[in-house]
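Table S5 (text form). Sequence records supplied for joint modeling of the two-component complex.
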Amino acid sequence: MKILNKITQKDLKLNKKRTIGTLIGIILSSFLIIMVGEMFYTMQNTMFQNCIQEKGYYHMELINLRKAYADQIKDNNNFSHYEIVYDVGSGESKTGTDNIIYGHVLSMSKETAEYLRYHVEEGRFPNNSDEIIINEDLLNLLNLKIGDKIELKTYYRVDKNGDYLSETESNFGKKFYKVNEKEREFEIVGYTDEHIDLITTGIETDKIYMYSALKNPNDSSKNIDELLGTENFNQKNRGYRLNINLLGWETFQYLDKVPTLYAVSAIIILIILITSIFAIRNSFAISTNEKVKTYGMLSSIGATKKQIKRMVLYEGMYLGVIGISIGTILGSFAAWILVKIINNITTSSGVLSNEAYLQYKFSWIPIIIAIIVSLIMIYLSVRKAAQKASEVTPIQNIKNAENFDSKKIQLDVPNWIRKRFKIGGVLAYKNLKRNKEKYKVTVISLTISIFIFITVSSIINYIMEISYKNWSNEGYNVIVSDSNEELNNENNLQKLESLEDCITEYKLANRDTEKNGNFVVLEPDRALFDEIVSTHIINKGEDFRDGISTTLQIYNDNYFKAVAKKLNRNYDDIKDKVIIINQTRDITKSGSVYRKVTNYKEGENLKLTDINSDSSIDYKIGIITNEEPLGFEGTNDNTLKVIVNKDYFNVELKPYSIYYKTNQPDELVENIKNTNIEVNIRNLNEEIKTTQTILAIVSICTYSFIIIITFIGVTSVFNTISSNVQLRRREFANLKSIGMTKKEFNHMIYLESCFYSFKSLIYGTILGLICSYIAYRIIAINWDFGYIFPIMPILIATIFVISIVFIIMKYSVSKINKQNIIETIRNENI
Amino acid sequence: MEILKVENLTKIYGNDNNKVVALDNVSFSIEEGEFIAIVGASGSGKSTLLHLLGGVDKPTSGTVYIDGKDIYKLNDDELAIFRRKKVGLIYQFYNLIPILNVEENITLPLELDNKKVDQKELDELLATLGMSERKTHLPNELSGGQEQRVAIGRALITKPSIVLADEPTGNLDSKSSNEIIELLKQANKQYKQTIIMITHNMEIANIADKIIQIEDGHIVR
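The corresponding structure-token record, covering 1051 residues in total, follows.
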């Protein structure tokens, strides 16, 4: 057998092109599997680390523990670590408007706070029990600042048995009692943006939260008593919460996102395997075909079928070991590089927070899986070739006969091919039929690349469309909104309005009514469907009337000027009229359904009635449209949207939002901040940049993947075509000797490449369009946009496929064109 | 009428120490309708001569006139077109196109020339070749003798100025060989076809009108 292995090795060295082609296929497939595997573990690790960053490393939060009970269980064998937080009690304080706000006061050490990732935004952590940090929203609500004192009354809420009220079950309808009431005063030394209320230190109580990390996170699914070694944990309103997010990413349980990650990785690996199996199988089939003489000769001098089979398998394993080794090293390295690139993009753009920073994790598991999978894949690919090689008879070597299905060749060539392309087309067409098996591989390889490319390009287009639709505010790219009544101050409003070209939105001054207001249109017969008509209580219960529900939006004059300009209307004609958005959107399982809301027409009267006072305001309808003219908000809540000019709406209003249109959004944001007016600022350009960055990363990953898959396919195509051309050298020389010119010969080759590249284009495009449409229907359930026909991806795929196939054929044939006719014929007859 | 004229034809392979003079200053001419056999020992240069006459190889020096045309003044495309109209080639190993059936292989030179096939003439030729029953068969469904008949048909279909046959019976049994020779004789007599045939078999060579003997690249007889 050693001699047979030597023959195999020598043949591999002599046929460098074919060997390299096969090796590339193996290297790339194991490379991709490793990359996907390492990226899977990197993603998992990143999410896992993010969970720790967010909340600390603990698996269970044990709640409502008394000190004695906590002491009993804290040194549990299953715990690797625990932290204790004392509940000082519910805290009451008064706001400026006499509303009562509740919050929990917690006491913990600084180390515990750091472990649980409580972050002090400004100020410092308390040093003693007279100091406190509170949530920033609460601070603003209470109109307090660092250094101020806060007075609290703390107490516990207990049930009739004296047990603390449950925090894991509903207490609805349960009677409770306040116990341990204490008046406390703290100095505010800092604030946090966390969703906790108040934190102090140095106070130990008999109500404890224990945050525990398990030695084996999988134990989290055990029964709690079994875990803690107790018999009665769930009594006395004790409870526990699992840190689901952390456990999900650590143990791959609990989270619904993890199966998705599994599914995505599995699909990607399946695509890699399908493409690779075809490529590698094809390479070995070609190798067998080209070595028919060798196998026949070996058979004629006495090599058994088993020995010849082993030769082919040896070739597979020999190349497999080399290819998998190289692919594994490159794949691991590439994953590390990819993580660096992604992190570079996210940090240099500065738009994503540290949560988006990928944390590379090397794992042996994908490497072991890739090696096993690749070896299996090579074995399966090579098996058929090995069987075929073992069946080569000595006489085949002598005759050098080619076996193909005569029936297929005897099929009539379609008339249009014969007429249009003459003998070149006939020869090209018949060759396809003859080599259907070989070209099937080529067609499938190209089809996979085409359909993946079209589908992925479509999905990326949809995501872009959704993103840009979100910010279709006609160039209004900075939005200021007010939750602290800052804009109510005339000076503040003027200051902000003076900064740039802007529109100010108003709402009704009475807080209870929110933006929907109390205004309805009491003409239910003008509604086009029943859902928008509801019964309203008029004038504080004196009357009930049916009316069309409205959403009222009130803007200043600038809005109407901008709309007039946008819709090419006369501003004076519309400034004192209403604009109606007469369309609503229902999201159904099959997508969005649009409906007209009313049958009003421009120029008609519209009466807005305040249901509180039964007074009304009459308007003329200035504009009826089916979408917001300046794109500010979507209409999808089954109401009639009415836009009025604040100057012609005689109701008490207050400013709510300001929409700016600016070429220098960052500068404007800075200027707004410099006014020291406490408002919320949205910079839409930043948000677009974030989405663009994410899209760029997704595009890099997906298109890189497509390129590599395509490269595997192209390698297979190259092997198939160049081998086939080589095997037909004599035939080509024959045609030339009979009198086929170089031009006619090239024309025949060109036609052949066209026939099967068009085949793969048709299959790939149809599959791609189907998948593209399915993706659209899934995405469009929640987003409103029309199907985007992927014309550019189809065009790119077409140009690519035709070019690649043509280039490969030209390259393969150019070698033959250089050869002397008679030398070729003579050599092939030897 | 002189159909072929060869002047000072020389073919040298290799260079310096590895030089092999396959043909050395060969000159002769052939009249239309003649059946010529070229004989010689193995390595004498007879195949080289035949290939140069057919324009499938290039000489080191010298000229070949077919139908009054210096074929080596033509460029590659012109030569290919000239070959398919004026020269019929028959090889020892048939060299049929495996994906075309008998009829298609025979009409291939006409198809290359975009000429319409005269079905009556084709049927006559098939009958002469004894291949009427097998006209839709592929080469891998034929015997060696049958394949060679098809090759002859392909060489004759365009009524070329000259048919060159390189050991047409070299790969056949005696019965098939006789059949092939008969066909060539018939083509020569019936169609007045000029035929130059290479053979190492003197018995076969004797059926020709004239024998040219080559030794070490020279014509000796």
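Note: The mean pLDDT of chain B is 87.
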